[in-house]
Design a protein that fits this description.
With about 220 residues, the chain is mainly α. It folds into two domains: about 90 residues, no CATH class; about 120 residues, no CATH class. Helix content is about 55%, strand content about 0%. The two termini are about 15 Å apart. This is Retrotransposon gag domain-containing protein.
């Protein structure tokens, strides 16, 4: 092992700390992909096989079974190949549809932490459309706030505000004003708000699926 490789190994986080996903429920395979892409960016001298040899620790449950079967069939492959296969397997119409439903039904209420809620919803929006603009993300996020609260946050933020700025503003409004202290998604007569049912979104989802292009990592075996 060269000196450069030894230094790179020191900077490589333990595999036990890597993001995990099972391939069931509201999983986030892109979190793992972005994490590994980031490792190659932060430590360019990392040999590819150091990463792929640790992939088995990132998969749980059904995803682990899929990974084992793929490895038995295709043998040793580099990260760009695995990256492409993960996206092809787990970024499908059903997954995007589930993310869309989850986003629509997760309206903000005062019992939810603003930072957690904004981050969770932002991840869903990026899952639905990887190329979503900051302005569109902010617009969609704010539509999930109660009317008065939405207006208050809009007045304090710009269309290009960062996610942290949106979260912080929401937190300030919630704490410092009476607007954010009560849930205003009232339907009257104690009626329950019906789950959000998207219309004509399959067209958008299919278009997003078609437009999404996997950019393979340049490192090869």
């Amino acid at each position: 092992m060269s000196y450069t490789e030894k230094e790179a190994l020191k900077q490589l986080p333990e595999a036990s700390s890597w993001p995990k996903f099972s391939g069931t429920g509201e999983y986030d395979h892109m979190e793992l992909i972005h994490y590994i892409d980031g490792l190659f960016t932060d430590v360019p001298s990392i040999p590819d096989y150091w990463i792929t040899a640790r992939l088995n620790t990132a998969f749980k449950g059904h995803a682990s079974i899929w990974y084992t079967q793929m490895k038995e069939i295709h043998g040793r492959r580099n990260w760009p190949w695995w990256r492409s296969q993960i996206i092809q397997k787990y970024r499908n119409d059903t997954w995007i549809w589930q993310k869309t439903l989850s986003f629509g039904n997760d309206r903000y209420t005062v019992d939810k932490d603003p930072y957690d809620w904004c981050l969770r919803q932002s991840k869903r929006l990026i899952a639905i459309d990887p190329h979503i603009t900051t302005e569109m993300r902010n617009h969609k996020l704010l539509t999930k706030l109660p009317g008065d609260l939405e207006h208050a946050v809009k007045c304090r933020c710009s269309k290009e505000s960062t996610l942290d700025e949106i979260s912080t503003t929401l937190q300030k409004v919630r704490i410092r004003t009476s607007i954010g202290r009560y849930n205003t998604h009232s339907t009257g007569d104690n009626k329950t708000i019906q789950p959000w049912k998207p219309k004509r979104l399959m067209i958008q989802i299919l278009k997003s699926q078609q437009d999404f292009k996997t950019v393979n990592h340049p490192i090869t075996m």
